Each structure stands twice: as C-alpha cells, then as structure tokens.
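lol ok so funny story. i was supposed to be doing the assay writeup but got distracted and ended up predicting the structure for this chain instead. priorities right. anyway since i did it might as well share w the group, maybe its usefull for someone
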Amino acid sequence: MDAHQKVQILVEEAEALGRRDAGATETDIKSLLFNYAWNLKKRGLADETIRTYVKALKHLIAKGADLNNPDSVNEALAKAKWSSGWKNNVAAAYKHFARINGLMWEPPKLTVTRKIPFIPTEKELDILISACGPKTSAFLQLLKETGMRCGEAIRLKWCDVDLERHIITLNAPEKAGKPRIWKISRKLATMLSRLPKEGDRVFGRATTRTLRRCLWNVRKRLAYKLQNPRLNRISFHTFRHWKATMLYHETKDPVYVKEFLGHQKLDTTLLYIQIERALFKEDDEFIVKVARTKDEIVSLLEAGFEYVCEKDGLAYFRKRK
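and the output, tada:
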C-alpha cells in the first residue's frame, strides 16, 4: 500500500457527518480533506494524528463552518458545546489547515483543563483481556505491560520483538516521545508468538479502529453481564494511565516512570503521583527490617525488600505489606 492509498483510507475512516459547507458537494469536501491529509502526511504527522485532525475538520463542517473563512471557524468553535480538550484538538487541526492553505488565522484563547483519568482495578483490565479474541487480547496485554500508546503498539514490527529473551523495543514513538525498551512477561511473549505472521507488523492488517471496536463490544457485553458499568470507561489509553500509576506505586520514582512512558517533560508524569496517593493512602504500610551482615542484606533484597538508609552501622530495609 503506497502513501496515497494510506491517506485515502485515513480520510474514509473519519466518520461521515451530515451537515456540510453551504454550496459544497460531497466530492469537493472529500478532495479538500484528502489534500489536507496528504499535506499532513508529508509533514511527518502520525497516522492516528492525521485521522483525528480529519475528523476534527469534519466536525467543523458539520457545525456549518466554512473552512476557507477563519471567522466562520471561530464562530463555530465559540458555539460548539464540545469539551475543552476536543476544542483544542479542533483548533490544532484548523491551524494546520490555515497554514497549508495560506490563510491568516488567529486561534481563539482556549483553556484546556486536564482531567483526572479513570484508573480501573487490575482485575477489571484482566477480565477484558481474557474476554477478547487472540489478537485484541495480545494488543491489550501489550498496552498493560508496556504503557504504549495505541498508535505505537499497532505499528510494532516483528523485528522489534525478541520472543526468546522477552524484550520489546520501540524506536518509532508518538508525540515526540523517547524510544523505549521493555522486558515483557512470559504470558505476553506466548500470546504474541501465537499470532499469525501477516507481514512485518505484529498485528498484521489490524487497525486501531478495528481493535477499538472489538474492545467496545466486549466491554459493553461484560458490563451488562457483570453489572459493572465501570468497564465501559476503559479505553486503550486507560491501560497507559493504569500502568503509570502502578509503576509509581511500586517505585516511588517519578523520573523512572517518565522514562518508562517516554514523556518529554516531568510535569506530564506528576499527575500520577496525585492519583497514586489517593488510591493507596490507606494501604501504604510497610514491613521494616534491619540487616547487620552482608548475608542478611542479600537475603532481604532477594525477598523483595528495598534499601532505605544506613544508621549506626545498621542497614534499614522496607517492603509494602
């Protein structure tokens, strides 16, 4: 599949909406969006970002905005009852459109309030993973163990997976993230090894759209069957939020969590400290041990205790109960 065909698919995958520009035909709009997506592709934007931006422009068109008239776009943004996050995405999408088409546009002032993400229990994640088909289950287990973004995971290639040593390498991160490498579980390695080899990508011809639809169907069915509406709040990105929170709980090291997730700035990671404190405040109790000899130190480390400090010739260790 060449680049033009991929861009065509990205445009077609953006949901068709009813209302259109005054006087614009379906062909006009499709051509406009294709040229827009193709320019974004040439600028190096990720497929998932292009898909989101195309969908954002369709939302503007549905609100009656004339994309060639910046004032019309600002009016649509002002009237639209969208979340602050989605308005910001729409503004970012139109900023690219204006630049590509030589339009002068001053974006409106938008304040994006970061919300506290939903953190499910591990049991809830595992229920969803086990209920999906082999490919979706492996995809979700990968997200759970590595905290990958879904766009990073769907592009994972077999050459990035070392099943013998249980290692996965990511050298094509999204959102200007950093490359990462992980040690995965035997369970995940087995799940991946059972997938059919359909080209160079681990998940073959699957797309985030098809896998997301599978997740939605399974969680809806399970939420009803188990009478647990919380399951309907779990998305692909929820696995990343869960991993970040659990990782900080285990390590209490925000810098390590930052590197694990591939964040550029520590500020992005600090949110998980707040979440961890709220979730584990009452459970944050420790067993404390003191070691006097090297053998005792080795024994405690092998038992999962972590070193705290040394005082009066004694080494202090602790482990959560």
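The longest helix spans residues 208-225. Strands lie at 161-162, 167-170, 180-183, 286-291, 306-311, 314-320.
back to the writeup now i swear
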